[in-house]
Specification:
Elements: H1 2-18, H2 21-24, H3 28-48, H4 56-72, H5 79-95, H6 98-111, H7 116-141, H8 144-149, E1 152-154, E2 175-177, H9 183-206, H10 212-217, H11 221-238, H12 250-256, H13 265-278, H14 280-293, H15 299-302, H16 321-331, H17 334-344
Amino acid sequence: MVKCFRHVQGAALIFQTSTTAAQLCASATGRLLFQWYNHIEDECCLLLSCRGAMPNSWRQDDIQIRKLVLESNVSPMSEKQRQSWILDDVLQTALAITPTAADVLATIPELKGSTGEKRAKMIVYLESKLVYILDYLEALRTTPIVEELLQTIEVGFPWQSRHSSCCPDLPFPPFRFINPSAGMVFICLTALRLYAQVVLYPPLRADGVRFERLELESKFDEYYACEMLRGYAAIEDEVGDDLSYLLSCFRPLVVAGFSCPVQLRQWLWYKFAHFEQLGPKYVEPVRRYLSVLWGMPGILTLSFESWKRTPLENRIAPLTVDDIEVAAKIVVTTTDLESSETVEE
């Protein structure tokens, strides 16, 4: 993972010395390239608790250019093509808040040991960033275009899914999206909001810091986790046998695991086991990260599959600053370190 982030830093340097955001994102190929880069940078930053290598202004420029391209497109476009285009733009707009979350994550360990004016300024800074994340996501979620995308159809109960034979039953029906692909936008928006409330805020609370807005929002943690799982159940049923599509939902569902209601824990654990079978290398760094954040060192050796029948309770002890630091370190394996040293030599 460390080696991967060094490549990310190298790519960021190449981008900034050879082009601009306007030039890069002016073409469809350039936008896809930048989207691919952002995905990898986000993965590294959230697992290693570090800040991104690319200025946030590049993502904002990308969003603005996407809007201009859609508005100025004079080529005939079917309703399905338009929906697909809008969905991708909305998803990238939502993910554009990730560097802010990574900045908060990287700042939290700096709070430990700080005193006086420095500590006071850092607390004000963290509160402004957390509130900004919530406001950003709420503003995006309530725009007419997103509300149109996320229209749902209630499903009757009892409900039988494609996974009824291999997973426990969902104790209540999911909701289907009129546009099935829009489910990923819903999962992403909900996970980012929940991430601020169940991962970024608890270490601050454990350090004696309280933010009124986050205290209020945190009362709905279980609700958001429950809604995310209901949305995922519908997506899982829609994709049929093409389970590789679901890999992009793995990390959002992990966030739901921090505040998953009791009646859904075993159901969620079966889903983690499915992901483990789909992409073990993709799952492994996150599993190591969770071994600390969930207080479950057994995950390192026993895997999700081994815990399906008896999933452990949600983390009882408050998440602390030390947990964030240790989790970032445990993601770096011995192999990563040896590879990095070889490259340096």
